Amino acid sequence: MNDRVIVGAISGAFGVQGEVRLKSYCADPQAIAEYTPLYAEDGRAFAQVVLTGQLKNGFTARFDGVVTKEDADALRNVNLYADRSIMPSLPDDEYYYNDLIGLTVLDAGGATLGTVKNVMDHGAGDLLEVIVPGASDTVLLPFTQAAVPTVDLTSGRIIADPPEGLF
């Protein structure tokens, strides 16, 4: 999936006519319909996505091949991906979540802190979920300029200055 970028998720059915509830992760939420075809993790492709309405946390939408409530229910909690080649290029200080996952996190002195497992957005700002070697729990590192001053995608590493006591 490295040649694809997550752009949204289906949260379930909307009504009984095959519409779904769609959450967009795009900077312009409505742009998700322009990045077709969209792919599910199992490889299923949706060539056409039509936004039919707006909800508090997303949209209602119709996907090709989804015509019944049962079809829509089967897509609950399915992440949607678009080909990286059709995604807009980003400024130097912005990254696609997929690009950050798997990067090694180092402190300013070069000591390894861990590896990025996931990137989460809870509304107040992004968090990097870091797997710490030898620890059973992960650490949530704020993805801010102060806590993460350097991201080097070429060398596959992040230089972090985490808040005291986080690691």
Walk me through the topology.
Blueprint: E1 4-14, E2 19-24, E3 38-39, E4 45-46, E5 49-55, E6 58-63, H1 69-73, E7 78-83, H2 97-100, E8 104-107, E9 112-121, E10 126-131, E11 138-142, E12 150-152, E13 157-160
Parallel strand pairs: 8-13
Antiparallel strand pairs: 1-2, 1-7, 2-6, 3-4, 3-7, 5-6, 8-9, 9-10, 10-11, 12-13
In words, what does this structure look like?
- The chain contains 2 helices and 13 strands.
- It is mainly beta and 167 residues long.
- The protein folds into 2 domains: 4-86, Elongation Factor Tu (Ef-tu), domain 3 (Beta Barrel), CATH 2.40.30.60; 97-160, SH3 type barrels.
- It has a 7-stranded antiparallel sheet. A 6-stranded mixed sheet has the order 11-10-9-8-13-12.
- A hairpin with a 4-residue loop joins strand 1 (4-14) and strand 2 (19-24).
Q: Quick recap of the structure?
A:
This protein has helices spanning 69-73, 97-100; strands at residues 4-14, 19-24, 38-39, 45-46, 49-55, 58-63, 78-83, 104-107, 112-121, 126-131, 138-142, 150-152, 157-160. By secondary structure, the chain is mainly beta.
